[in-house]
Amino acid sequence: MEELVPIVALLSVALVLCCVFFFRYRSRADVQQTVRAAIEQGQPLSPEMLEALGTDFGGQRDLRKGVVLIAVALGISGMALGLAEADLLGIAAIPAFIGLGYLLLWRLTSAQKR
Asked: What local confidence, expressed as pLDDT, does residue 114 receive?
């Protein structure tokens, strides 16, 4: 039974990644469908509107990703302290530093907009 744990963990990660990619694909396909419908109906498409449809709100997305990754790192750190496993603190550093990088990107992009 214990040999199933790593397999289930890897399958869970793969399932989450598949869901992320699928919903990202669906979102882009919906935008393209909207543009096609507007073109077929003869609606004018300004470059500003097309640019707005294509943007992914990078600054706010960086903030969200940074906060979520910091929260994941804090969760792993809490688990490491609860289990007295110092090795997990090193693992928690990975999402923590990636999250800090996203927060830095958010700060830099928000400072450029001012």
From this structure: 62
Report the distance separating Cα 34 and Cα 45, nearest Å: 11
Alpha carbon distance 33, 27 (integer Å): 10
pLDDT tens sequence across 44-58? 877 777 777 765 555
3-state secondary structure the chain: CCCHHHHHHHHHHHHHHHHHHHHHHHHHHHHHHHHHHHHHCCCCCCHHHHHHHHCCCHHHHHHHHHHHHHHHHHHHHHHHHHHCCCHHHHHHHHHHHHHHHHHHHHHHHHHHHC
The total number of residues written for the chain in this structure: 114
Distance CA 39, CA 14 (A): 38
What pLDDT, on the 0 to 100 scale, is given for residue 54? 67
Contact 102, 76 (CB under 8 A): no
d(CA 52, CA 63): 19
